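Hello again, I could really use a second opinion on something today. For a while now I've been wondering how a particular protein folds. Please have a think about how the structure follows from the sequence. Here's the protein in full, and shout if anything looks odd to you:

***
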Amino acid sequence: MAETLNYLMTPDAFYTLLQVIMIDLVLAGDNAIVIGLAAAGLPKEQRGKAILIGIIAATVLRILFAALTTQLLQIVGLLFAGGVLLLWVCWKMWRELRVQHREEENAVEALNEEDINKDGTVSGVAPRKTFAQAAWQIVLADLSMSLDNVLAVAGAAREHPEILIFGLVLSVALMGVAATFIAKLLHRYRWIAYVGLAIILYVALEMIYRGLLELAPVVNGVVNGG
């Protein structure tokens, strides 16, 4: 135990741990807001069920992707590809952070069943989709965002197996237990999400750089062999 604590107190490990925690927090909250946006278009009696399906799906998908991604990143070339994919994630997050405030407010109200803006309604959006449409939209979003989450954690903590495992477990726990609370927190304090976005961008660029270093010998071998 003492040995583990000493290891975590080293500057590199501690910095990586903070990165992983922030990534998990922001992406769990982001995922929950997307679930809330999809559920906000449902009648009140169906919203809770849709949100529950979304959170369960996201939790299960994170477990499945965690088992695969950490192995796949050992293959030469996939670290670079993962970094490029994370750049796309950053672009998506940037666009989502700039979504109309009212839309996000409806999502958070739907998640928490709480009239945050005190307008007399919870998620004041007229029902405009079927339960099947909302559920399908939520599962597709979960599929993408769970992969994003696991990939970001694996990229950040690739050199630290203990922190990698902790980060993956934390991502599952946050999505399963605290996602709606985190979504509300990010809605209230948007700077947290921007800090998380900056960290994910840094991880993406570092993965691309390390991926290029991995690919360089292979490319040189092909060129010289040719």
Summary: Residues 190-225 form the longest helix (36 residues). The chain has eight helices and no strands. The chain has a mean pLDDT of 78. The radius of gyration is 19 Å.
